[in-house]
Each structure stands twice: as C-alpha cells, then as structure tokens.
Design goal:
single chain, alpha/beta, 4 domains, 6-stranded mixed beta sheet
Length: about 450
C-alpha cells in the first residue's frame, strides 16, 4: 500500500492520481506522454504567435471542443490560411489546425489510457485487500476510536472542560454550561448558563426574544448530555447527568420539496415521532412548535404537545413565543418558566443571553426586525399597528385591566344545565308524546340560559 498509493490521495478515483509514481512502469510512461503534451502546447502557442503576428493568441482546452486556438474577433482577419474556424463567440474566435488536432489525439489518448490503467491497478489493489479485510477493518476501527478519544482528551484539556458525573437519580444538573462550538467561533465572550431538571421539575417553558439564545441554550444542554453519555469531559463547570435513553429534537424550520412535504408537515412528522417514542428517561427539545400554521391551531397543538410531554415526564426543554403556554405551570407542578434576558436601550435591544426564572415580559419583535435591517418606514408602521392593537385590547377589557386582555383559550368550559339535559336523554325510550313535551322543556331551558 505504501508503494502503490501517494501520501495524499485524491478524493475521487475517477480523476486519476490514486496510484503513486514508480508503482507501474506502463502507467508512468502514459503519464509522461500526457505531461510532455503540455510542454508541446506551450511551444506550439509561441510558434503560432510568431507565425501569425497575433500577440494575444492562446491555446486552450475544454471538454466540449477539445484543444483550440483563441484570438480576439478584431484580429480574426490576420489568421493564417490553414486555420479552421471552430466556434464564434461575442468577443473571440476559436480555430483548430491539423497539427493541433493531431496533438490533441495523442495527448487525450495517453490521458485516457493512463486513467484506464490507473483504474485497473486500483481494482487489483482492492482484490488483494479483500484477503486481509477483517484485520484491516479491526485496525481502522481501533484507530478511529483512538483518534476520537485523543481528540476529546486534547479538547478537554485545552478548553477547560470538566468531568461529568453520571448518577442513577433522574434529572440533569449543569452549572456554567456552554455550547462547545459557538464558544469557539464567536468573537464575543460566551455567556454560560445553568440548568436543573429534577424529578420535581421535568419541563422548562423557555420564552424570550429571537436571537436571545433559546435554541443555543437547548442545543448546548443536549450536546453536554451526549458528550457525558459517550464518556467525554463536557463544556461546563459541573454536570450531573441521570439516566437518558434517547435525545429527541424538533428544532428549525425546513420543508421537503422532493417528498412533497410542507414545513408544517415536516414539523408534525418529527413531533409525532417524539410523542410515539419518548419515555420518562428521554431528553426532548421542542423549538417553537406550531409556528407553521394559523395562530390558534399552532397554539392549541403546542399546548397539547407540552401537556402530553409533561404527563409522560420526559426531561423537556420547550421554547415558544406563545406566551399563553407560560400558564402551564399552574396546572402542571413539574413545569417551570424560564426566559432569556434582554434589555431595551434607545429603542434598540441588547441581548444578555442569561437564563432567568419566570416568563419573558415581551417578545421584542420590532427591535429584532430593526437589527435585521428592516426599513425604518416599515418599522414605524409596525409600531403604530402594535400600539393600536394593544390599545384596542386594553379598551376591550371590562375593567381596563391589561392583565385580563388575553383570552383564556384553555379555560375549562362551565357546566351547562342544557347540556346535562341533552346527555340524560334516551331517545329510544321516549314515546312521541314524551318527545314532544321534552322538546318544549329544552326550548324553555335555552331561553332561560340566554337571559
């Protein structure tokens, strides 16, 4: 193998260069002829310039036309008589000559034969290697594992990672957690954050502005858990990881054009996989589920999914812009609200990237739009519309209390005597007279309810 293969082989066999010089005399001779052809072309180009008097004459090559002589159209009247026009372009003319065509045949023939010979030699090598495939595979696997372990050890030492503790107690406790990639590529200092998921705190509802760091916070948690479970040190001050059987993620927005699936369909397919397979020992990341459909549909789905994951007691990080979901801890004690902090200064937003307890107070959507470069005219219109919407909502509240302007979409319906009456009816047991009397009774109940 050392004799047959070059020190740095090419990525693709089809382009040649996979067999080292000196391994096969026939291949070396074909390559020599091909390489000498380039020198012959340079000599031919110099000779044709002197013969024609065209100083910018060039000999070029492409896969469609092969070798050709190219000159500018303004000098096309100076070409010798033996030039045969091959192609006319907007600013140039392309020609061939008998000598150039003959040289092309020799060079391309040598290159083609060299490539065929190289492929044959490569196939012979593979046949020889088949006899030693098992020990070679074992060696490759061992080297790969050693490579990974030494790399992780080097990174742990260089980047100040810590040794995690794997415990039997369920939950995830990380102090000073960092994202291993973003910490290295970001020009700004990375802000570490803590996370605590215990038997009494299974789900975090994460709110905050876009670009505030919600996705980074979730991803770094998953990466720290993954690194710990594979035996690596982790980018954190301290980490205690309980039993984790699988990591599920529903992050990002992308469609599947080839498969005919919309962004929302992809989102729901991934969500279905999580709901069908997550256990109480799974780590689940859900990022803004429901944003691919209408507001009420998306909110209803997000609420139902969060409730199901909470009842399943999976370790869940649930990032959302639906502030209604911050009410989940009221009905699910094992759920808590956290938010990524930000402040506003001179109508501009400053991201602090720190995780704090409690829900976010606002979304800062217009401020993020300004950072993205949305025209000021559009931002002013947006501020005006936002002010109108907030004012209308405030006036619509019976006591003008802004805390009551949000419709409670998930409030349990009050009991209705009319509904109870309908549920108590047994149609098959009624005579026509009884049915007639019951109809009048229900009508009276409906009128009383309306009043």
């Amino acid at each position: 193998l050392r004799k047959a293969l070059p020190d740095i082989p090419p990525a693709l066999v089809r382009d040649g260069g996979v067999i080292a010089v000196g391994y096969d005399a026939e291949l070396d001779e074909l390559k020599r002829l091909s390489e000498q052809g380039d020198q012959v072309l340079l000599e031919m180009e110099t000779r044709e310039r002197e013969r024609s008097g065209i100083k910018n004459l060039k000999i070029r090559y492409n896969r469609v036309h092969g070798y050709y002589i190219e000159i500018s159209r303004s000098q096309s009247d100076q070409v010798p008589d033996n030039y045969q026009r091959r192609q006319t372009l907007k600013g140039a003319e392309r020609f061939i000559t008998p000598d150039l065509k003959a040289h092309e045949d020799r060079v391309l023939s040598a290159r083609s034969k060299a490539l065929e010979r190289e492929k044959a030699l490569y196939a012979e090598l593979l046949d020889k290697l088949l006899e030693h495939l098992k020990p070679l595979s074992t060696c490759a696997e061992g080297l790969a594992e050693l490579d990974v372990l030494t790399t992780l050890a080097a990174r742990a030492d260089t980047l100040n990672w810590s040794r995690p503790i794997l415990v039997e107690e369920p939950g995830i406790r990380i102090q000073g957690g960092r994202h291993p990639v973003i910490e290295q590529v970001s020009e700004d200092p990375f802000v570490p954050n803590d996370i605590e998921l215990t038997d009494a705190r299974r789900m975090l509802i994460i709110t905050g502005p876009n670009m505030g760091g919600k996705s980074t916070y979730m991803r770094q948690t998953a990466l720290i858990v993954l690194l710990a479970c594979m035996g690596s040190f982790v980018p954190a001050d301290q980490a205690s990881i309980g039993p984790i059987d699988r990591i599920f993620t529903r992050i990002g927005a992308s469609d599947d054009l080839a498969g005919g699936r919309s962004t929302f369909m992809v989102e729901m397919t991934e969500t279905a996989n999580i709901l069908n397979n997550a256990s109480n020992q799974s780590l689940v990341l859900m990022d803004e589920i429901g944003r691919g459909t209408s507001t009420y549909d998306g909110l209803a789905l997000a609420w139902a999914v969060a409730r199901e994951l909470g009842e399943r007691r999976a370790c869940t990080l649930f990032a959302t812009h639906y502030f209604e979901l911050t009410g989940l801890p009221d009905e699910m004690p094992a759920t808590a609200n956290v938010h990524l902090d930000a402040i506003e200064h001179d109508e501009r937003i400053v991201f602090l990237h720190t995780v704090k307890d409690g829900p976010a107070s606002r979304s800062y959507g217009l401020q993020v739009a300004a950072l993205a470069g949305v025209p000021e005219k559009v931002l002013q219109e947006g501020r005006s519309i936002l002010h109108k919407l907030e004012t209308d909502a405030l006036h619509a509240a019976p006591d003008n209390n802004s805390a009551e302007t949000q419709i409670d979409l998930f409030k349990r319906p009050e009991e209705s005597p009319l509904v109870d009456a309908f549920q108590g009816i047994k149609p098959d047991d009624l005579t026509p007279r009884q049915a007639h009397e019951l109809l009048y009774k229900l009508k009276q109940m409906a009128e009383d309810t309306a009043q």
